[in-house]
Amino acid sequence: MNDWSRANFLDLNTFRGLGEDPVYHPPVLTDRPREWPLDQWADAPRDLGYPDFARYQWRGLRMLKDPDTQAAYHDLLWELRPRTVVELGVYSGGSLVWFRDLARLMGLDCQVIGIDKDLSRCQIPDTERTGITLREADCSQLETFEPLRGAAHPLIFIDDAHSNTFAIMKWAVGHLLEEGDYFIVEDMIPYWHRYSPALLTQYLASFRDVLAMDMVYANASSQLDRGVFRRSTTKE
Ligand SMILES: C[S@@+](CC[C@H](N)C(=O)[O-])C[C@H]1O[C@@H](n2cnc3c(N)ncnc32)[C@H](O)[C@@H]1O
């Protein structure tokens, strides 16, 4: 008999806590001892750098938010007490479960909505979906966002998909955000500032009458660096 006919195959998209995923295993250092002697502290190599893919998880689900960013969102949730969190970019879904759990712990009545063009990598089990709405859609199509118009406020809108960001920001300002609501651009502002500084500053300046950068959270972590915007006036 062949191997394939004897094997019991797991569904890789639905199995949670997959043992192969490096996030669940501490790294194995092969070229240096993990326990470095303190009498040679000054000679320790510093070339490992930081992983290019964050190693964070929430209750067994990968979550691409580092601890500083988690702390900033904790404070923002507590301060704003949002009724809705919309996150563009679901990936494993860990951040959606984390937002839902944190809001629950705080006693908030908050609906979490995740939008992604590819939900096949989402590993949120069916038993963990209370308070979470998943929508498969492409951020390049603005009609994707129409159903959000009925969402409760205060509202936090997070762009962690990095596609069509400024067109979405324009749509959100025009059709969704009320005074005090947030539009947050994760990760990308430092890159755009480095590679397209003129366009970035021009785009941001065009929102000067309707959005302001919240300086409490815009300096709170590298992922949120200069990307936390608050709706400053009510809709015309
Ligand atoms: C950085 S991951 C999201 C991580 C997640 N928010 C977290 O914190 O754990 C980015 C996700 O954006 C999705 N994405 C990329 N382009 C998109 C688009 N045009 N429309 C919808 N989703 C998109 C990808 O499929 C991917 O799952």
UniProtKB/TrEMBL annotation:
Signal peptide: none
Positions of transmembrane segments: none
Database matches in Gene3D superfamilies: Vaccinia Virus protein VP39
BP terms from Gene Ontology: lipid biosynthetic process
Single GO molecular function: methyltransferase activity
Pfam families referenced in this protein's UniProt entry, alphabetically: RMNT_CmcI (PF04989)
Annotated protein name in UniProt: Hydroxylase
Protein's organism: Streptantibioticus cattleyicolor (strain ATCC 35852 / DSM 46488 / JCM 4925 / NBRC 14057 / NRRL 8057) (Streptomyces cattleya)
Gene coding for it: cmcI
